[in-house]
Amino acid sequence: MSRWLQQFSRSLCTGLLMAGMGAGSALASSGDAPEVVVESPEFADLVDKGADIRQLYAGAKWSEGPLALPDGSVIWSDIKNNRVMIWREGEEVREWLRPAQFHNGHTLDHDGRVLAASHGKRAVERQNEDGKWEVLVDLDGENKLNSPNDLVVDRRGRIWFTDPTFGIDEPEEGYGGRSVTGGEYVYRFDPDSSELTRLSTPAVKTPNGLAFAPNETTLYIADSEQGHDREDASLNHHIVAYDVGDDGALSNERIFTEVSPGVPDGLKVDEHGNVWTSSDSGLQVFNPEGQRLGRVDLPERTANLAFAEHDGQHYLFVTATSSLYRIPVSIGEARSERD
C-alpha cells in the first residue's frame, strides 16, 4: 500500500470516528487518489508533481470557507451540519463554532478579526474581541440580503462580498426564505461609514467566489449560475474579470475563462497573478491571460481553498465535499499594501 493510501485510510477512519459520514458525503469517486496534472511547464514551478497531498479530515457533510488563522490553525465551514471546524497540526479536529448560522466563506479584517458570510443570518458578520458575533450588514436598502457566500477585504478595509440565493434555496444550507433584493449581486461594504454599494456586474448571473489580483488592479468573480441546474448547459460556469479603479469602481468587464467540469466556486489569486479555482474535479490554475496551466484532481467535488504559510512552506488548504485537504505549493497568496 502506498504512503498516501495509508494516510488516506487513517484519515478516513479518524473522520468517521469523530463525526460520522452523513448521507451524501461519501467520496465523489471513491478510491481515486489525488493527482497533480501538469499542462504547462510553468505549473511545475507552482505544485510539485509528487506533492504530498494529505486528507486531514473526512467527516463533514459539505465543506466550505477555509481560512488560515495567524496561529497556524485552519477553520472551515461544515455548512449542512451548521458548524465551523478547526484543524491544528498534531491535534484532533474539533468544532470551533456550533451553531454557526450556516457560515459559508470566511476572511480576516485588518485587525485580525474573523468575518463570515452567514447564510443563516443572511448577513456579513464579524467576531469581535469578546468572542461575540456582530452583524455588519444584512440589508440592501430595506430588503434582506439573500445569503452572503464569499468575501474579501481590500487594502482600505472595505468588505467585498457575493450574495447568491443558494443559502435560501437549499433547505440544508440555511433557514430558508425568499429572495427580495431582485437578483443575485456583488456588494462592497465600508465598515467605517456603513455604506453599502451594489456593484454593476452584468456578465455575472450568480456570483460566488471572488479575489483580487496583486495590488488590487483586477477583481475576479466566479459565476456559478449552472449550480442552480447542473443539467442546463446554457447556464454560466465561468470567471469574469474587472479592472478596479482607485475609487473601487469596476470597468472593462470580460470573461476570463470558462471552468469545467462543474462550476467555479471559491477562488484565490497567487502573488504572480495566477488564478486558482475550485471545480467539480478539484483545483484548476490559470495564468493572468486565462490559459490553464494545470490541475490538482481530487476524489471529491471541490468547493473552496485558502493559502497559508508555515515554517517557510506555502500550502493550500482545500475544502471538498466531506473533507479538508492540504497541498504543499511553491507560492503564496497575492497581497496588497494597505492604505
Automatic annotation (TrEMBL):
Annotated Gene Ontology MF terms?
hydrolase activity
* Keyword Signal attached: yes
Reading the lineage from the top rank, the first entry is: Bacteria
Give the record's keywords alphabetically: Hydrolase, Signal
Q: Where is the signal peptide?
A: 1-28
- Start and end residues of each SMP-30/Gluconolactonase/LRE-like region domain: 62-321
Pfam family for this entry, one: SGL
Which residues lie in coiled coils? Answer: none
Any idea what this protein is called?
Gluconolactonase
